[in-house]
């Protein structure tokens, strides 16, 4: 018993040793700045001066009256709408395609579809800027779509889908692998079509994967920052300016750190509530074998 207790304690210590670096990083890179931001949101700090005054909820009241804020809000919601739909269709489609293959072909397809996830947002923006400017304009004889207010959001959503769909593809693929083949065999014996199998077996049993993937896609597109900033700078005429870009501009361009943090806090609260609601919606529809 003493040997077992000593062994368990050493295992526990080793776990904490491995957790400590990540915990420190999370604390100083996420937790501490978050609470500092809450404090700044109630001040008139400009981001530079050492002195500032507490103004209570003034910054939050100004945000509700700021007409310029509505454009980034609508842009962000449009990003999230098209992004979640596109990500679900593309990543699920890729997962079904890979799952239908076996052996080396399946491994090769999985690798090819996942490689874009290894590219940074800046590199992705550079590659797609070149494609839109040099190839798309030549093939379709049109102007650069990134310079068209009606098309810029769709263009950036396509960039994001290419850059991130591989992650959700792997999650869906894992869910597909966990579905017993016996269910499909029994359905085949009963005369079920491929669409009936997909609707009655695949989709219900993939609900846990849908919960994770849609939540990840939603938060990713709602927080859209790097791609529109590096590809269009929020243009043309603010057509791709998201809430994250608007927060960034207030913090570092307009020297309104307090106001920027107030918008950030409200955005975080909204995102948490929305994610919680979506997870609750899908978890109620999850089924177990």
TrEMBL record:
Give compartment(s): Cell membrane
Annotated membrane topology: Multi-pass membrane protein
InterPro entries reported for this sequence: ABC_transporter_permease, MetI-like, MetI-like_sf
Give all residue intervals belonging to the ABC transmembrane type-1 domain: 73-278
Q: Where are the transmembrane segments?
A: 16-42, 79-100, 112-131, 151-173, 203-222, 262-282
**Keyword Transferase attributed:** no
UniProt keyword Cell membrane, yes or no: yes
Spell out the SUPFAM superfamilies in the cross-references. Answer: MetI-like (SSF161098)
PROSITE patterns in the cross-refs = ABC_TM1
User: What are the UniProt keywords, alphabetically?
Assistant: Cell membrane, Membrane, Transmembrane, Transmembrane helix, Transport
Q: Where the protein is mainly located, per its record?
A: membrane
Q: Name one GO cellular component term.
A: plasma membrane
BP GO annotations: transmembrane transport
PANTHER family assigned: ABC TRANSPORTER PERMEASE PROTEIN, INNER MEMBRANE ABC TRANSPORTER PERMEASE PROTEIN YCJO
The record's similarity note reads:
Belongs to the binding-protein-dependent transport system permease family.
* Official protein name in the record: Sugar ABC transporter permease
UniProt organism field: Candidatus Limivivens intestinipullorum
Q: What is the lineage of its organism?
A: Bacteria, Bacillati, Bacillota, Clostridia, Lachnospirales
